[in-house]
Design a protein that fits this description.
Layout (H helix, E strand, L loop, with lengths): L4 E5 L4 E6 L9 H16 L5 E6 L10 H6 L8 H13 L4 E5 L2 E3 L1 H8 L2 E4 L4 E3 L13 H9 L1 H10 L3 E2 H7 L4 E2 L5 H14 L17 H18 L5 H15 L1 H16 L2 H15 L18 E5 L3 H12 L3 E5 L3 H20 L5 H9 L1 E4 L10 E4 L5 H14 L5 E4 L6 H4 L9 E6 L8 E6 L5 H13 L3 E6 L6 H17 L4 H12 L5 H8 L1 H14 L9 H7 L12 E3 L5 E3 L4 H11 L12 H21 L6 H12 L8 H8 L1 H14 L6 H4 L3 H9 L14
Helix pairs in contact: 1-3, 4-5, 5-6, 6-9, 6-10, 9-10, 10-11, 12-26, 13-14, 14-15, 19-25, 20-25, 21-22, 22-23, 25-28, 28-30
The protein binds 3-hydroxybutanoyl-coenzyme A (3HC).
């Protein structure tokens, strides 16, 4: 018996080896070592005829311990010895092995099960190889054994998408040999193992199977197609191609050669920045739920059972949908029956779209809709635990609503606003309950976008912040707690993004070229001008004004968006903005944009000698994103985010910043803080006479990190004693 894996020999001669590393039995090197020792002992003991491998705490394993990747310079110490040692011992040791899988077998966890001679799981189990989403590839033989069990097409798909499959699909594909109820799992696995030992059931060796693998003539085109698709979909990523290479070598030269290729490819992928960035995002995303002074304050979160949403518009109905989907009772309040019915209709159609996409059954959607009720007054608000106000961005209106809410709701009800721009303290100014007023900033569409920006003021009580965090998790959002300021965290870093792009146009660059670089060259889901069209030039102008007023010293007051508004080219909704749109929302460049761009350039007066500055795609990327990093540093320095990594998560989930670049701040660290500061200083000087020094000048936090060689992610403020 040891700590990380235990061995128990049963009266039937079947040894049960149990992984013990809660909460998810991550395969830390110490666990692998313990597992290896247990296997060796079981194989050596005369009273053991077969082995069952299982996991403690109702879970098999979520794979190799990702924290080890974060510690090491790459690869977590995984090398080919793992395959030669424990996988080979599981697969081809003297005694047969059966994996008894409950709840999850992911990454190295599934690979452990794949190396066993049979697999049995429980209903609801998720099985998958999600390594690619960590910037690596399966490293315990998964690239070889999975295709030999489920066929190349399915296996490649599972690896490339990182998406797990459920028990039913696994059984259909032959990935598991049986699905049995949880309470029967060990008994069934023991019986199966004993039967293999007795020769009444076959002992299968995954690495040597060929019956499910497509013939070479079919296999190679499948891999070529997958490669071409991957290059198209993820042109910046190398590790999916390394994974496909390992699969191909296995198909062409056999499993052993494939394992060697897998090992080499794994080491190569693990040395890339992509891997560091994605591991960072994995932990950063989980860490947003841990907030200093809130989650460590010994408070108990209260569950929100009933939520009222004020306003049944696009945002309100999305918030209502997300809340009802999480099992909460929802009350939508509107000002008249017409608006109320269309709000309820929107919730219904959100659910219908979930049914259409196969995310839920019609019966489930009907049950969710049953939880959503409409109202035109506050009479039912005494039973509500939280209100989310989602009405027009009008301070006076919101202030009146909050004053009414204070009277209509219980004294412990949380009063929140979905505002994206207005000071939360201002919204609550006409109440006496500032301690339970908070921002719940959703991103559109609210039932789909994964981020929830929780805005606390200096008066919001820790209990209310904690309860709102709990609400965010319950509705399956990644909640990020931020401080109260213009634009909070996300929109605040969005401002310089749009402004820098407009500045480049005024300097003479083509907006379509800029979009192409930011989309294809950098990996954002769309360029800044396509995004502006999506949001609407009117909304952009309105939101931008807040920033100009709040931070005039560092604003590039571009006239491009103003001119688009004047020309009534508001974007997608008017059929034209920077682009022209057809009925199917397809874009094409529009020659009619040229005079607007010309007028903006003329007004800016920055285009010297009629020629734009020569800029490489990388320079364009830096010109747009370094001011964004600079603003992000101010957000960190002012304590608007709890920790720098929160901003990485927020930019990935709300802005679409490529996760494989690690989020805004990690990206700057990876490319070098000194370089960022040096470029910003250079532009500050270069554009000083145009009044743009403030737009570029590195803030104190950024300059300090550059001067001292510290990382922006370290959160070391210039005034910090650390
Ligand atoms: N290693 C280390 N810690 C892990 C882990 C792993 N593989 N998987 C989960 N955890 C930790 C989380 O960090 C979290 O810790 P915390 O409570 O301290 O924040 C805790 O386990 C619970 O995880 P979640 O909060 O994510 O809980 P959920 O129930 O929402 O999700 C999960 C569970 C589906 C297992 C999800 O955590 C997950 O997807 N984990 C990653 C799975 C994965 O990518 N595995 C591949 C690892 S790489 C590998 O195996 C390489 C091999 O091929 C050699």
């Amino acid at each position: 018996m040891n700590q990380k894996a235990s061995l128990q020999v049963q009266h039937d001669g079947v040894a049960i080896v149990t992984l013990q590393n809660p909460p998810v039995n991550a395969l830390h090197p110490a666990v692998l070592n313990a597992l290896f020792n247990c296997l060796r002992e079981a194989h050596a003991r005369k009273d053991v005829k077969a082995i069952v491998v299982t996991g403690s705490n109702g879970r098999f394993s979520a794979g190799f311990d990702i924290a080890e990747f974060a510690k090491s310079s790459g690869g977590g110490g995984i090398d080919s010895r793992i395959n030669d040692n424990f996988c080979a011992l599981l697969e081809s040791g003297p005694k047969p092995t059966v994996a008894a899988v409950e709840s999850m077998a992911l990454g190295g966890g599934l690979e452990t099960a794949l190396a066993c001679n049979a697999r049995i799981c429980t209903p609801g189990t998720k099985l998958g190889l999600p390594e690619l989403q960590l910037g690596i590839l399966p490293g315990f033989g998964g690239t070889q054994r999975l295709p030999r069990l489920v066929g190349l097409q399915t296996a490649a798909q599972m690896m490339l998408t990182s998406a797990p499959i459920n028990d039913k699909k696994a059984a259909k594909l032959g990935l598991v040999d049986a699905v049995v109820p949880k309470e029967k799992l060990l008994e069934a696995a023991r019986a199966w193992a004993a039967e293999i030992a007795a020769g009444t059931k076959p002992r299968n060796f995954s690495l040597y199977r060929t019956d499910r693998l497509e013939p070479l003539g079919e296999a190679l085109p499948i891999l070529e197609f997958a490669r071409a698709e991957t290059q198209k979909r993820a042109p910046h990523l190398t590790h999916p191609l390394l994974c496909l290479d390992a699969i191909r070598v296995g198909v062409e030269q056999g499993g052993h050669a494939g394992l060697q290729q897998e090992s080499a490819a794994f080491a190569q992928a693990a040395s890339l920045d992509t891997h560091k960035a994605l591991v960072h995002i994995f932990f950063a995303q989980r860490a947003t739920k841990k907030v200093k002074g809130i989650t460590d304050a010994g408070l108990k979160p209260r569950k929100m059972k009933k939520v009222a949403v004020l306003g049944g518009g696009l945002m309100g109905s999305g918030i209502a949908t997300a809340s009802a989907l999480a099992g909460m009772d929802v009350l939508i309040k509107e000002v008249n029956d017409k608006f109320l019915q269309s709000g309820l209709g929107r919730v219904k159609s959100n659910l219908a779209s979930g049914v259409k996409k196969g995310k839920m059954t019609q019966e489930a959607a009907d049950a969710v809709m049953q939880r959503v009720k409409g109202t035109l007054d506050y009479s039912d608000f005494k039973s509500v635990d939280m209100v989310v106000e989602a009405v027009l961005e009008d301070v006076g209106l919101k202030q009146r609503i909050f004053a009414d809410l204070e009277k209509a709701c219980r004294p412990d009800c949380i009063l929140s606003s979905n505002t994206s721009t207005i000071d939360i303290s201002l919204i609550g100014q006409k109440t006496k309950c500032a301690d339970r007023i908070i921002g719940n900033h959703f991103f559109s569409p609210a039932h789909i976008m994964p981020l929830l920006e929780i805005v606390r003021t200096d008066k919001t009580s820790p209990q209310v912040v904690l309860d709102t965090l709990e609400y965010g998790s319950a509705i399956k959002k990644t909640p990020v707690v931020v401080g109260n300021c213009t634009g909070f965290a996300v929109n605040r870093v969005f401002f310089p993004y749009t402004q820098a792009a407009c500045l480049l146009v005024d300097l003479g660059l083509d907006p379509y070229k800029i979009d192409k670089v930011i989309l294809g060259g950098f990996g954002m889901p769309m360029g800044p001008f396509r995004l502006s069209d999506l949001v609407g030039a009117d909304v952009g102008l309105h939101v931008g004004k807040n920033f100009v007023e709040a931070f005039p010293e560092r604003t590039y007051n571009a006239s491009l968006i103003v001119k688009l508004n004047e020309a009534k080219r508001l974007g997608e909704k008017t059929g034209a903005g920077f682009y022209k749109y057809d009925a199917k929302r397809k874009t094409k460049p529009d020659p009619e944009l040229a005079p607007i761009v010309e007028a903006s350039r003329k007004e800016a007066g920055l285009l010297k000698g009629g020629k734009p500055p020569p800029m490489s795609p990388q320079e364009i990327i830096e010109f747009i994103f370094f001011p964004v990093v600079n603003e992000g540093c101010r957000v960190i320095a002012e304590g608007i985010v709890d920790k720098p990594a929160d901003l990485d998560v927020a930019t990935v989930l709300a802005m679409g910043f490529p996760p494989y670049r690690g989020g805004l701040i990690k990206w700057a660290d990876l490319i070098g803080v000194k370089h960022v500061a040096q470029r910003l200083n250079q532009w500050a000087k270069q554009y000083e006479s145009a009044g743009l020094a403030g737009f570029f000048k590195p803030c104190q936090y950024l300059q300090h990190a550059a001067d001292t060689g510290s990382q922006l992610s370290a959160g070391v403020r210039p005034d910090s004693k650390l």
